[in-house]
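Sat 14:20. Reprocessing the chain from the morning session after the first attempt stalled halfway. Input below, unchanged.
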Amino acid sequence: MTDINAVMTADASGKEMVEFSMQTADTLVRNSLTRSQIRTIFTEVRKIEALWDIRNEDARRRLNMLKPKMDYQVSRSQPVQVLRDVLSKAIDTVESASSIEERNKRFQRFVELFEAILAYHRALGGKK
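Finished this time. Tokens:
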């Protein structure tokens, strides 16, 4: 599987992100992760995205606080673990950016990655 850091930083064409998302979604489907479990996390990401340009520091705090929320979801349902691992590494990549512009670019890729995982999960027959 492709390295998440490369997907988030060096994949200008998006090809690696598409492949990584499909592989991740396939694993989630095989682990019986439900759409509602993904949606719980995705809803929070959408809220963070809405804040990103307006109140960046609040959005960054909420992005980092997504990690303990995902840890809680894992404690309730083990299939969430793969998604948590992928998204936590992606959050770390966003936070490790050396400039505001790079952080914004990486955050947008984080959102795109999550959207692609969700889309492939559904396309591959993920449980409702």
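Residues 100-123 form the longest helix (24 residues).
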